[in-house]
Write a structure and sequence with these properties.
Structural class: mainly alpha
Shape: elongated
Length: about 160
């Protein structure tokens, strides 16, 4: 029993060491470099983890890219140079705010187009229902008038 407990402790320590190693502490010469690094890893998307930025992802590629960004910031490269490097390597997908260009127009205008289509379908449905309700109401009114007219003509005659 004591050996099993010791084995569990060793396994937990080994796993936690791997997690701590993957997080990695990055040191910079100035607060400005640290702020740039943090801004970039929050702005760049992990190529593997579809909807996470580099700082939130624990995938191996995100760790590698965080280290790459740290190295490039330490070398004094500008944010634009770092983003350009990432885009050249992984495409516009790596940017959370891709530039407006011909191949990203759907990303920028797609939501607006979907909202317009949704509004048009909604308005069409509302108008069709109103038109149908008015037609049904008119038919009911016509039927009531016919019935009351028929009822008054039959009352005047003796059924015998």
């Amino acid at each position: 029993m004591k050996n099993l407990f010791s084995l569990c402790i060793v396994v937990c320590l080994a796993l936690s060491a791997k997690v701590l190693a993957s997080i990695g502490a990055v040191e910079f010469d100035s607060e400005q470099e640290l702020a740039r690094y943090q801004g970039l890893v929050h702005e760049l998307r992990c190529p593997k983890c579809q909807n996470q930025n580099l700082s939130d992802s624990n995938s191996e590629i995100a760790v590698d890219l965080r280290n790459q960004v740290a190295r490039m910031v330490g070398e004094g490269q500008s944010n634009e140079q770092i983003k350009e490097y990432m885009v050249n390597r992984y495409g516009d997908f790596v940017l959370y705010r891709p530039p407006v260009q011909s191949n990203t127009l759907v990303l920028w205008w797609g939501p607006l187009a979907m909202a317009v289509v949704g509004l048009a379908v909604f308005l069409f449905t509302v108008f069709q229902r109103r038109k149908l309700a008015a037609a049904v109401e008119g038919a009911e009114q016509h039927a009531v008038e016919d019935y009351s007219e028929e009822d008054t003509t039959h009352r005047g005659h003796d059924p015998q």
